[in-house]
Amino acid sequence: MRIVLAVLLVPSLASAQVASDDFHPALDARGYLTQNASATLDDKELSFGLGSLDWGRHMDASADDMITATLVGAAGLHVAGVPLEFGASLPLGVVSASRTEARQEVGDLGLHLKARIAHVGAFGLGAIGSVYVPSGDVEGTGVLDATAGRFRIALNAGVRRHTMMDMTSTELVTGVGAAWALAPQKIELVGEVFGTPGTREGARRLDALGGVKVYLAKNSYLSLGAGHGIDAGGFRAMISIVFEPKPAPRLAGHVDDEVVAEVAPPKPPADAWSDRDNDGIADKDDKCPDDPENYNGYQDDDGCPDDEPKNLVIDGGSTLVTLEGIEFEFDSADIKPVSFKVLDAVAKALGDNAGIELVEVQGHTDEQGGFDYNKELSQRRAASVVAYLVDHGVAAERLTAHGYGESQPIDPAHTQAAYVKNRRVVFQIKDRH
Hints:
The chain has 433 residues and is mainly β. The protein has two domains: 242 residues, Beta Barrel (Porin); 129 residues, CATH 3.30.1330.60. It is 12% helix and 44% strand. The chain has five helices and 18 strands. Helix 3 crosses helix 4. It is elongated, with a radius of gyration of 28 Å. The protein starts with a helix and ends with a strand.
């Protein structure tokens, strides 16, 4: 019973008795199977779960079978603008050998710190420091990764100081992971090669691992994988499930604070108890006391919903500012119906202002996802907005679509709040008379 419990509770054995099986799951969903990516968790974002439930057959000279489970947890924290991630891992397992009885083993508690050092276009650079207790092993790893559309790749390389029986040694640890998105942020095919080049006696090992990651939500995922030792033989199979709960991002436009300040907020009712529909107009003055007026500053004095929203668009001189964002279906260029009224207001503004001769509809994304993929998605979304406006009476020659992807953030921070600002559609006036 104790053996079964150990299998159910933990992953990847880091004990000195099976030190040659250096299998450690990735710290978070941004990684692959065992290899890590440079990106960290967002500020105050959490990650936890079963990093891997791993069965190894003849993966170690002293064991026939090893069943190990590694519990992982991590938290993101941005300090002075530097994205950091603090993580922990705890492996437990069962080992069986033909000459000995099956034994339960508890591996080292791993404490990890990951930092994203740089992110330029499609390339990222990170560093990971790890210490394992109680053995005292320490490891430092550099991460270089890149994205190109649906393809991403990462190189992990570092040095591990290993302690066994009061003796220490140093070894190189390397690996490369690659992934191809069959469906972006939904299903990925993953392949890895990793191991140690053999800088200490008997330490050389190189393994190949392939599998699939199925994203259960934005970042939470289920992974299945299997692999084989390239030079030392052995077979491995693994499964993992990790959760990174957070609110779904809202794909919306952004209005600068100074523009919002120009629009007076609705006045609260003198007596809140006499405003049944809570639209800011007292029941005694409200012709529709049970139907809320258009809120967000667009109401008139009668308290009744308007057939057409007012003041959704402001002519800012160089841009047409929309006071509500243009929203799209997830990972798609399909415009959500909730945004039709905003685009109708843009079409009306262009119809009422013949002097505006050319508008560039700009699509912008945040930095999440591949650089090329983001640019392509933003282009499709800008084109979708142009198509809607043309279908609603705007002459096609007055509009042009341009997708800028993540290249023009208005907030450079690596936070969800910044991502919301950076995901936007801008109506840039290019020519007017």
